[in-house]
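User: quick one - fold this with calcium ion bound?
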Amino acid sequence: MAEQLSLSISTRLVGPLSNMTTLNQQGGVMFGPDQDNYIKLIARVQSDGTLGLQLYSEKKGVGTTIATVGSVGPIASPSTLESLDLMLLTDPQAGTVQAAYRATSATSDTGMVILPNSVLLKGGQVGQYFAAQSKAGIITSSKGSTTPITLTFDSFAIASNETTAARAPIYRLDVAGSDYTDSSGKDWSSDAGFFTSSPGEAIVESNFGVGIANTDNDLLYQTYRAKTGPETSPMESRLLSYNLPVSGKVDVRLHFAEINFGAPGRAAGGIGKRVFDIAIEGKTVFDNFDITAAAGGALTAVVVPIEGIQVVDGTLNISFRSEVNFGAISGIEVLRSPA
Ligand SMILES: [Ca+2]
Ligand SMILES: [Ca+2]
Ligand SMILES: [Ca+2]
Ligand SMILES: [Ca+2]
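Assistant: Sure. Structure tokens for the protein plus calcium ion:
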């Protein structure tokens, strides 16, 4: 880990997990420089006795729960769970660590689901996490319980990608913007012609006056598409879809910033003002995504990576379906997946 590469740290827990019954019994995957500074994604027994997932970050010995997944889908039935994949996706350039999981049983498969909130490494933390002595591995614990836990891990892997900047893009679209070159020399182009919307037309929205935290490319985030029809249109009719000709395996980077709700002189901000589902190739990758929650506030950029999408029909389909207000998107990158 001498170079600051994007890493995908993953493990697979073999089901059934019916032996996980005592509070805080847990197992999963971790990444970090030492025992007081690390990030973990674990399956754990929750206070109500059910199995759930937790993304947890400890900084100088003080822990924070970043995101949780309750007892849903195959996870809700640990006795029939066949496999539980747990992944940490790190991007040193963006300073983010994202978590994802996939749970399968004989009758269901969640697909890869990325948790909405990511860990943002600040300042010197990026250097610490990506230093040569940093570690990644599997963990099990029965913290606070006298009942030991035995879990079976089928695999553990650390895969490195080239950094995003070094990889040839297939698309780099400044949604609602125009051709421009960003602070690191990357060329972006307009998204005209690549999307459809309903029940009306997704117009250009912008807020050029505002500064956007967490990026040097404020211009990319000062324009977006969201409103796909009148405010009176039924929620379930509100859909924005990108249809990008491409084939093979690709990685997607979705760029968001909330620049209306919570922006000076605009609408009141906060979590829950704009909520939408994101689907890729017809499969929901984010249910009830909230930009403000994911970014940690308004006027803050957040980049969501979605890795390894197989496009077999010649068109990459990315859709944003409204739950509250209208879904919004500021920029889309599509990169060739490493072989
Ligand atoms: Ca900025
Ligand atoms: Ca834009
Ligand atoms: Ca939803
Ligand atoms: Ca498709």
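One thing worth noting: The mean pLDDT is 90.
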